[in-house]
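Give me structure tokens for this 639-residue protein.
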Amino acid sequence: MKEGRAPMERPGRAAAKGFRAPLGAVAAIAAVALVAGAAAAALRAPPPSAPQAAPAAPAPQAAPVAPAKNAPAFLERDDCGIEFVHQRFATPSKKYLVETAGSGVGLFDYDRDGLLDVYCVQCCPLPGGPAGVAAPPDLLFHNDGRGADGRFRFHRVADTVDVKRPDGTVAKKPLGLGDRAYGMSVSCPDVDNDGFPDLFVTNVCQGVRYRDKGNGVMVAVSNGGRDTPYRNNGDGTFTDVTDKSGIVDVDWSGGVAWADLDGDGDLDLYLANYAVLDFDHYKPCGTKERISYCHPDALPAGPDRLFRNDGDFRFVDVTKAAGIVEPGNGGHGLAALPFDWDDDGKLDLYVANDTDPNFLWHNVSGPGGMKFEEAAGSAGIAVSGEGRPQACMGSDFADVDGDLRLDLASANLGREGTVLYLRRDGELFEDRSARSGVLAPTLLYTGFGLRFLDYDRDGDMDLIQVNGHVLDDVHDFDPAQTFEQVPNFLENRGDGTFAEIGPSLSPFFTRADVGRGLAVGDLDNDGDLDVVVLENDHAARVLENVLVTSNHWIGFQLVGTRSPRDAIGARVVVACGDKKQVQQVTGSSSYFSWQDLRLYFGVGARTDAASAEIRWPSGQVQKLEKLALDTCHVVTEPR
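Here you go.
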């Protein structure tokens, strides 16, 4: 969330109103802006410890409604029942940086009926804000499948739900959710391997309390923050297990990664913390006349945390013992993704940092426990190709050029553009942002949620990105920038180069908003990928993929046995006709959000039966032949 040089200031400094850049720098920025503006204008509108339950088969659905001729590829579904409006609770007298950071959205099948449900993260009043304002809760929306009109529908899950007793009678029980803290991210892994996905919500502040200063004046002060794990009870309810979990982290948590980092069959937890944020002693930035959101450097970077999963929702902080010692002054972490960098069968961790060099924690664990070494510089992903740290935010891995190696993209601040690192020979990545066509259409936008997906099933990975600046008054400092910004949709031309096509897909890509969380998944089990976007201080957006295409597809829902049940880190290579593709189960891609764990491969017009090779996190390799197309295959790891 870094701002280039001016608007976001350190405490005690003037805001951007008094900023003067060197003349040469101004000329350079202007030249870049002209190139980016011309390109953008031409492309788009303006600016195993537990018993394993059998996996649920995808729920049968009514036939989808056929879109009208020349209809958009994505249909905004304001009528689908996901009625959620994010609130950032702005405090003009403080302008805490966290206000423009949230929040995330999660896709998961909490009741195992075969349909993805949606969890939206909310915020709460902050110290310095108006008194007496109630904190709204996070909301869970149940997927009801397709209605009589052929469209998918959701309803908000009530605070009290009906639960069937063994004798068949029904009892009322609390849902157990409804977090009312200042929420940031959500993840939905099956922490205890019981077949039911759990929830983990990161929070910055647990709300406010009011303290009497002794003169009749009540002052709002912070209650502090805590990250909250919820166990899925398997009956439609959840239990807050924070106190027993051992997960203690009071800093501003950004990205969250779940992965089996020690090879014991369960998911460990990595928290990429953004900053140490003291609400009660916060010094506003800017001047008395004009308060401004601070530059990230004004807030000490929050040290990341690594927790080992010891089973039964009990975790142990092994950060220092595992060698997670951040270089320099640390990093303002906003995304964390597991992947096997060196193909040694051990999952490593990429951490996207804002204004600081990124991290790559190389897993060198042995019999003595988890051990990591920092290797981002060696891999070529610590900084941009020009050698500068960037404001890396939402991130994702995918093979964009068809060489069966995972490439990496991270969204950045306006005037930096989204960075695309292509994997080269050996363990090295190369910044190909400009030559790939990713840089120009994203250069003037501040990206947050970012995901690769094959929206048209043609066999290559496209890129969606939602945007919105971190400064609500950025236009006063930079006329080319706005707080609300249009999203990007970059189509892969089939060779790892991209072109902006968003406005042709949906009016959504022509409307400026403040995009943050973004999750991608098949909400209606029709074989194409839909999108849910959480916007800062705006209503959530749901995009149904209604593209009419004769292209075929194949999907995989992986169920681990020796590996964690979610199979996070599993890598699947699919072959169909003359085409091979690779994808990895990740979960924590994008920004503060959780993705559909199923993998979907488009195969274009090919009609041959497919084959697949699965490398499970346990190290097992499983080969499958003669797989039918246009089906999502449930595959269980051999024991």
